[in-house]
Amino acid sequence: MAQIVNAMAALLPSPPPSPGGKGSQRPQACFQVQMFRINNQLPIQLPSQRQPGFTLLELLVVIVIIGLLAAYVGPRYFAQLGKSERGTARAQIEGLGKALDAYRLDTGHYPSTEQGLNAMMVKPSDESKWDGPYLQKNVPMDPWGRPYVYRSPGQGGDFDLSSYAKDGQPGGEGEGADVSYR
Fold first, then answer.
1. Residue 2 half-sphere exposure, CB side, CA atoms within 13 Å?
2. How far is CA 136 from CA 95, 121, 122, 140, 163, in A?
3. Is 8 left (phi over 0), alpha (psi -120 to 50) or beta?
4. Which residues fall within 8 angstroms of residue 11, CB to CB, at 6 or more apart?
5. Is pLDDT larger for residue 107 or for residue 1?
């Protein structure tokens, strides 16, 4: 086969001489493909060197490595996300608790359960000593998009302030455990 290829290559016309006058040299290419017709059939391509690119096996190995990395890093990333939501809820509850304490210092009592946390933003009609608003912005929702649960008087003190966390139900464990004031 190699003899046939060499014989056919010798029959190919040589390119015109280069403008520099150094004779007739064939241009060099990194990857050449020569085409031949044998008995008026379709051309046959004979690569002179290995074609560039990746093999299917190399691509599969890379995809498996990326999948393993995603399987290792993904759960750790989402666990951190749950911790940050709980931390945000704790910080917001602490801020609301301080605002409730300021309300009590001015009025002598905490807002009732019926008045709720909005009593810190809008003066209740029966409060003459109210000196608010006690929050810079409206009462926020918890990080899971639900309102904070406020009761006054509380079960363990003057008031209860909590978020039912991710599951939205009282109690729970792990990421579903309630976040409460004090």
1. 1
2. 11, 9, 12, 11, 21
3. alpha
4. none
5. 107
Please give the structure tokens belonging to residue 117: 């946390």
Sheet of strand 179-180, all strands in order from the earlier edge strand to the far edge: 149-151, 160-163, 179-180
- The phi, psi pair for 130, rounded to 5°, reads -65, 130
Cβ neighbours of residue 146 closer than 8 Å, sequence gap 6 or more: 163, 164, 168
Helices (H), 12-114: 56-107
In tens, the pLDDT along 41-58 reads: 666 555 556 677 889 999
| Closest alpha carbon to 163 in 81, 91, 77 | 91
Amino acid found at 50: R
Q: What is the pLDDT of residues 133-153, one digit of tens each?
A: 888 888 999 998 999 999 988
pTM: 0.56
Query: Could you give the CA distance from residue 45 to residue 33 in angstroms, rounded to a whole number?
Result: 6
Residue 136 is given by DSSP the state S
